[in-house]
Design a protein that fits this description.
509 residues; alpha+beta; four-stranded antiparallel sheet; three-stranded antiparallel sheet; 20 helices; 51% helix
């Protein structure tokens, strides 16, 4: 047939469709790529087809993708994937440990994708490199500056935290493309936007929190109607549970009565635990023992409650979506909106308060991180600098009249229990795995020792040389799969890369 031509042993086929020449290339194993040559001229089509053939063969030889996608097309697919994942999460059984896209995350995805569409939506995804990512930052900073129709809630100048999240988003999208083979062997760009200053939400001081507790009671008792009093009672319970458990607002909002379980601690005291589901999956949270009475009183006021009812429920029984406005109003009337440094308090400040006070009570950071559903790195970066443990406060305070000689508190250190030693051994095993995968070499004995010593000192433990030898032996016996799971759970891989221990443990030379 005159309108079909073959070349390269039939691997390249030219054919006409509606009078326009098309090219199709056989990639092998039943796979093809093709495109319109956008011409009806046979000689021109033959020339373009040969060029297409050689470009495709070159891309295949270099491991580059031969099926081209624009960022707009990729974002369409990614948003659809997130929406389906969110629907699956809503239909999943209560208590599942599988992480799904939350409603808040889906909202963020849909918001941020618009900026990237405007910035680079028509570009091919394999052309989005490190320079394209770095150039996004000045483009985004100037985005709203020449607009006059801004919504009142729009902030013209994005914060560093906003830019960091938007950069993290596009890298998630590109990793999605990489996992599906859309980038071939091309790596995801390595650009990282670094915060100029790390923004830390303010916590409540002990004095401020005492004032807040009193304000909650006063404000509730001043209500001039039963519905208003019930709303303020809800806020009272909600705020105190957040402050004394460290759970996130989203986790509190999705707690059901069946998620509250009675337990008994090592001192024989009755307490409760929460089975929460949040952005880090499902976990068990043991709150401060004072929460038990708060929850008991809350349930006593709702005599007709059922296991599947929301723990924090609106007057009509529906789930709490947000109590932010009510909390802001309470802070305003009690003169607690700002802390001493002028930073604005929020509901999240209650989580910060819990972390800081837990550290001050000498609870080890591994236990705090697990209870709060976060990593050791986050505890140290965002909360540790605001808290001083009682043991360290004693050491810093010294002895009256003694200014030249520091008080020796070695004998006041905590004993190294088998459980604590096992925990440090897991950290050392995680460090060994990190060194092997990231630095492409085995961790040296001196480095393993320094790693163990660092964490034992962090936890203020009494230990000997024999303890270090034993911990090292335990660490080397831990399977890599267990070390990898532990590192992921505690966020240690990133911590090793960014924390000062990474620099301290670098080999000399």
């Amino acid at each position: 047939m005159d309108d079909v031509r073959r070349a390269h042993d039939g691997a390249l086929v030219l054919f006409k469709r509606s009078g326009v020449w098309q090219a199709r290339i056989h990639l092998g194993r039943g796979k093809y790529v093709g495109k319109s040559l956008k011409t009806s001229n046979t000689a021109k089509a033959t020339e373009l087809a040969e060029e297409y053939w050689h470009n495709t063969r070159y891309e295949l030889s270099k491991g580059l993708p031969v099926r081209k996608r624009t960022l707009n097309a990729l974002l369409d697919e990614y948003v659809d994937y997130r929406e389906r994942d969110h629907k699956m999460g809503k239909g999943a059984r209560s208590g599942t440990s599988v992480k799904y896209t939350s409603e808040g995350m889906l909202r963020q995805v849909k918001r941020v994708q618009h900026f990237w569409r405007e910035y680079a939506g028509k570009r091919l995804i394999d052309s989005i490199d490190k320079k394209a990512l770095s150039d996004y930052v000045p483009w985004r900073k100037a985005y709203y500056h020449n607009r006059t129709d801004l919504h009142p809630n729009v902030r013209p100048n994005p914060t560093d935290k906003t830019l960091q999240w938007e950069m993290m988003f596009i890298k998630m999208v590109l990793r999605y493309a990489k996992d599906r083979g859309y980038l071939g062997e091309k790596a995801v760009p390595s650009y990282t936007f670094k915060l100029a200053t790390r923004r830390i939400r303010p916590d409540f001081t002990i004095g401020d929190f005492g004032q807040l507790k009193q304000a909650l009671v006063t404000w509730r008792d001043a209500a001039n109607s039963e519905p208003r009093k019930a709303a303020r009672q809800l806020l009272h319970d909600y705020v105190l549970v957040l402050a004394l458990s460290g759970i996130r607002t989203g986790e509190a909002n999705t707690l059901k009565i069946r998620d509250v379980q009675q337990i008994r601690d090592d001192l024989g005291r009755e307490n409760i635990q929460f089975n929460v589901r949040g952005k880090t999956g499902a976990r068990t949270v043991v709150p401060h023992i004072d929460v038990k009475e708060i929850v008991a009183n809350l349930l006593a006021r709702r005599s007709d409650h059922k296991p599947d009812d929301w723990l924090f429920a609106m007057p009509d029984g529906s789930k709490v979506e947000s109590l932010r406005d009510q909390f802001d109003k309470l802070l305003e009337v009690s003169n607690l909106t700002l802390n001493a440094a002028g930073a604005k308090h929020s509901l999240y400040s209650l989580r910060h308060f819990y972390a800081v006070r837990s550290i001050a009570r000498d609870i080890d950071i591994y236990t705090i991180a697990r209870n709060m559903g976060t990593s050791v790195q986050m505890i140290e970066q965002y909360y540790g600098k605001h808290a001083t443990t009682t043991a360290k406060a004693t050491k810093l305070g010294g002895t009256s009249g003694q200014y030249q000689r520091a008080e020796d508190l070695v004998m006041r250190r905590k004993n190294l229990s088998a459980k604590a030693a096992s925990q440090v051994a897991k950290i050392v095993a995680a460090y060994m795995l990190w060194s092997k995968t990231k630095r492409r070499r085995a961790a040296k004995p001196t480095e393993r020792r320094a790693c163990a010593t660092h964490f034992l000192e962090q936890d203020y433990r009494r230990f000997t040389e024999a303890d270090l030898v034993s911990i090292d032996k335990q660490a080397r016996a831990i399977p890599q799969t267990d070390a990898r799971a532990f590192a992921k759970q505690q966020g240690l891989a990133q911590w090793f890369s960014t924390n000062m221990i990474a620099r301290a443990l670098k080999p000399s030379g």
